[in-house]
Amino acid sequence: MNLSSPLLAFASTRAALIVTGFLTLVLFPAHPVESWMGLSFPDHPWIDGWVRWDSFWYESIVDPNPRYVPSYLSNANFFPFYAWVSWVAALPFRAFFDFEHAFFFGALIVSSVSFALGLAAVARITRSLAGDVVALRTVWLIAVFPFSFFFTAVYADALYFCLCAWSLVFAYERRWYAACALASMAAMTRIPGIALFPALGLEYLRQANRPTGRRAIRQVAICLGILMLAPLVIGLYYEWRYDNPLEFLRARQVGWQRASGIAGYVRDWNYFFESPIFPCRTVADCVREFAPTRALLGVLYLLLLPSTIVLTLMAAKTLGVGLTAWALISILLSLPNGFDGVGRFTAVLFPVFISMALLLRSRRAFVIACAVCLPFLLLFFAQFARWRQVL
Q1: End-to-end CA distance of the chain
Q2: Which residues have a Cβ under 8 Å from the Cβ of 90 and sit 6 or more positions away?
Q3: What is the pTM of this model?
Q4: Percentages of the chain per state (helix, strand, coil), in multiples of 5
Q5: For a Cys staple, 46 with which of 22, 167, 186, 193, CB 3.0–4.6 Å?
């Protein structure tokens, strides 16, 4: 399998999403209900739908005067690495656009390039583990997954996906310094990035031909030093900006009410299954309203977490200890957060999609699975573009 397969999966699904976003915003214009739900590109519906929800929070990390974020919440909830990389990518655009719009252009490029590179990494590691056919199918299953549109939006998910995938690729190829460097960057992109640390350690212990003696001690010391850069940089950043190196924990629990355990699940259950479930009378009403999609999201979120655990365990022998540990520890870290965000959180767990590809042995089953996923991908992105809460 050559590089064209990941690129084809990326290009075809993103083209379908761009057309969907354009038609959605032309036929059913977005109607933000809160003052901070801004439209950054109201005259360009082909791009505006990608800048929603958390997009403004990432922009606020590097913008001293953000327009849209509400004052009663803190952007300390969002790790800064994606915003930093997007700020750098935006520099060429600042000659033509104001800071905000230049940032969004840069962030869209970062997300798109990261997703394409992440798919290439997944294809590479899957090919080494299970062969070309499984690798090809894994890439397509990720691309058509109903929540994969986040990989092209102004969200940190694509960069995180890319860093995690290449970190694990390099670990399986025994390129430990590169693997640890990317793991450190992933841990500065999203909190669950810390799951890479034990996953890399377990994979290192598994490999029989690792160095011994002084060479091993030196290699382990350098790797630990690289990994420790992430908490050091994050702690210094939060101390400098918020006078508290652990401000992100306080912001998540107090302001955003995340990581709240059972209370979070109860809250999310009441939201996703709020009565009436189907208030619309016609197809047009169902498209305009969010409630039917909200209930559908609730059902999917209920199924996703146990499904990811089962699929990961089913393929553990093929995946190896590194991929298996990373997926399971990532799921464990997500459990206190409730249902909200389960879709995009699951989208980055590519070992789960490797397991799915292994199960879909026939071409017909694989095509049917993709055909089932694609309409939901387009539907959820259409709702997301209209400022509906598909998170």
Answers
A1: 33
A2: 102, 103, 104, 105, 106, 107
A3: 0.94
A4: 75, 0, 25
A5: 22
In the numeric block, which tokens belong to residue 191?
A: 């909190």
Of the pLDDT bands very low, low, confident and very high (cuts 50, 70, 90), residue 284 is: low
- Considering only CA atoms, which of 89, 159, 117, 128 is closest in space to residue 6? 117
CB 183 within 8 A of CB 200: yes
Question: How far is 381 from 45, CA to CA, in rounded Å?
Answer: 13
Tokens read off for 149: 């549109």
- Do the Cβ atoms of 275 and 249 come closer than 8 Å? no
What is residue 31's predicted lDDT score, i.e. its pLDDT? Answer: 73
- Amino acid at site 211: P
**Tokens standing for 146?**
């109903």
The closest alpha carbon to 120, from 161, 152, 180, 92, belongs to 161
Closest CA to 197 of 161, 175, 168: 168
- Type of residue at 98: D
Count the residues in the chain. 391
